[in-house]
Design goal:
Helix 3 packs across helix 4. Helix 4 links the parallel strand 3 and strand 4. Strands 5-6-4-3-7-8-9 form a seven-stranded mixed β-sheet, sandwiched between helices. Strands 1-2 form a two-stranded antiparallel ribbon. The protein is globular and about 40 Å long. The protein has one domain: 3-Layer(aba) Sandwich (Rossmann fold). It contains five helices and nine strands, in the order H-E-E-H-H-E-H-E-E-E-E-H-E-E. The protein is of the alpha/beta class. It binds adenosine monophosphate (AMP). The site of adenosine monophosphate has 18 residues, from strand 2, helix 4, strand 7 and helix 5.
């Protein structure tokens, strides 16, 4: 199905908020995009453009804004939705993956039964920055035997070289800064 909106329209609905949550960060606020029915649906169309319903088993979304896009993409592709959450939030048995932050480290987790071995996975987050979070999510999917077809991001901060951490995997981003 042809996409109904342009990347320029998506970009115009992303609000830059300087110095949030701390000085020096240019926060990309996607709430104006989400509030616009046509742009939200169009963004999902663009993020799922390479796939037809039934060609993906699970859309994996990253805590927390990634959930919004991944869940919508999952219903469109007739796929399941699987959350990658920050450590300590999932109630059942989990596998975990640590990753480095600028200062210190963080841990993401996934339920041990979230994916069947060989599951065809589309991984989605709102924004690719350094790539640490999504590389950790990739590691979780691969630990469970999932087969990542593509990583989709609404936004990529190219100057942070996040793709370097996602080598060998197809990465698709809509708006690049
Ligand atoms: P990273 O692990 O560095 O690729 O960071 C990616 C995660 O941090 C994503 O889940 C984003 O939601 C969030 N993030 C990082 N930088 C920004 C930013 N400038 N604006 C909004 N979200 C960001």
């Amino acid at each position: 199905m042809p996409a109904t909106i342009t990347v320029a329209e998506i970009e115009s609905a992303i609000r830059n908020v300087p110095d949030f949550p701390k000085t020096g960060i240019q926060f990309k606020d996607i709430t104006p995009l989400l509030a616009d029915a046509r742009l939200f649906a169009g963004a999902i169309d663009l993020l799922t453009r390479n796939f037809t319903p039934g060609s993906v088993d699970a859309v994996v979304g990253i805590d927390a804004r990634g959930f919004i896009f991944a869940a919508a993409a999952a219903t469109k592709l007739k796929a399941g939705f699987v959350p990658v959450r920050k450590k300590g939030k999932l109630p059942y048995a989990t596998i975990e993956q640590d990753y480095a932050l600028e200062y210190g480290s963080a841990t993401v987790a996934m339920h041990t039964d979230a994916l069947k071995p060989g599951a065809r996975v589309l991984l989605i987050d709102d924004l690719l920055a350094t790539g640490g979070t999504s590389a950790a999510a990739v590691a979780l999917v691969q630990k469970l035997g999932g087969n990542i077809l593509e990583l989709g991001f609404l936004i990529e901060l190219k100057f942070l070289n996040g793709r370097e951490k996602l080598k060998h995997l197809p990465v698709r981003s809509l708006v690049v800064y």
